Amino acid sequence: MTGQHPASPATNPLGIGLAMRRAGMIALLASLNWIPAQAHAQVVDWNERLEGEVYSTIFRYYTSPPRPPEMITECLADEGDICYGGDHEDQGCFDTVGCRTEAQIIRFLERLKRAVIEEPGVPYPIAHAVYAHTRLRRTATAVDLAMECASVGWWCDLLRGLAHHHRGMPERAEEHFRRGLGGADPKLACRLAGVGELLTRHDRDSYDDLDCSARTEFEARFWWLADPMFSMPGNDRWTEHISRRFELVLHEPILWVQRGEHPRRHEASVVRRGQNDSWSRKPGRPQEQWAGKRAARYRFTPASALADGLRALSYELDGGLDDEGYTPATYGPFLELPAQFARFRQADSLLVAAATDLSGIPLGTSRTVLIASDAPESFPVVLGPVSERARPVFAAVLNAEPVVISIESMDDNRAAGRARRGLLPLSSDGLVVSDVLLLDASDAELPENRDEALALMFGKTTLPPVDEVSTYWEVYGAEEGQPVQIAISLTGGGRGILTRILRGVGILAETGAAEVSWTEPASGSVHPMALALDLSRLDAGDYELRINVLAGDGNRATTIRSFRLEG
Q: Is pLDDT larger for residue 127 or for residue 41?
């Protein structure tokens, strides 16, 4: 593959830390494999019951009602009452529990810190001190405590990852989490890294049949595709996942103190969407869990099944309440960018054309890049950034192999947008047709070659009401002078509705024709074609442009371009 790889701020103004991610690949594989460096790892009994000062502190805080006048008749988190301080236990805050005051919260946290001082090398006091400070949003103190952890090394790294993630420092969190998982108890590491709850049913059955050591490749591929922004160092969606799972592990002993446990359904929902942000109980209706969706606004994991391959890769940025969800702490809002992608052959390589239309996107002054990734931690092509252009267009030459293409944009306020597709290479044998480019037809002349076509490329496949649209594609594999039959159909609503071809081949079709065809000699092994289609009589809706090519030797090839016509 060829392309620009960021090496300095001059070529990397978005802060693309891709080179450092290559260097982290070994650590990634080690952490996901749970390799037998574990044989001499230090042991933490992470399933043990709480005891001593930590137990009594948590028991008092979560089970003892406050004395008057601190007791109130009703304490409801949805109405702004702090209950236990705003942490996960607030979901039990109804009628019988009074709100904890700021003084009580401070005493609770100070007692946990005192337990750490009394037992500096014991894993659980430091774990619950750090965890309490993160869930009560004292994140700076949580980081300080975690960095002073004197317990088992890998356990301390997990706590440092948790604290840094909640502090809004995902790169530091990822570094600590990967190091911690690399040395952790294999059973705990497997539990923290598991992604079964995030998968489509099609993938989940196969994944659940694998043991932990066999899941390495699948999980690496899953998190590669779930990375919100290739142009940002690290993968904050992954650190969020590990944080959620580690919090569940640390939360179990708190529930034991209260004589409870996690229902399996609740644990799965926390893994998918994070901790609840609502606990409304309305008569005759199920309890709401994410009314505000603060904990889970966006869906970054693929909506498609990984087993279906990159061709089927799809995302649904705004998922439902039962889907995976995550709101980034360090950037956003996050937007789905419109885009158009197309593939062409260039010698033995694949040329990908990509464009986006930012004119209707609520981003400020933004910088836009195109990134091609062919495998986890591999980003061989980075093009851009293109600044202050409403329609950035990119052309990247890649090896002829499956690839993920991502157009990413971020403005000065860190609002972000992305368009991402999985693309397969075009066949290198026989008769082949490229993808069709949809072009702005306001230029009176049709493009004569690919470069001219790229300059006119629409940045989306949803078109405004226009009388016509220009198209460009290429036919490969025919010999010069060989007759090639071209057949074009445009369908929508289940019927052929081609009106006419305006320019390019001198053919006028009858209105409503199902197909228009003609024959012409191939200009060589690469035969470029451009024509304009009349859309003036079409209603708003979804359409499919199909181009069939038949060579004189009987070889056939087809390409399809789907688009939407606005009303």
A: 127
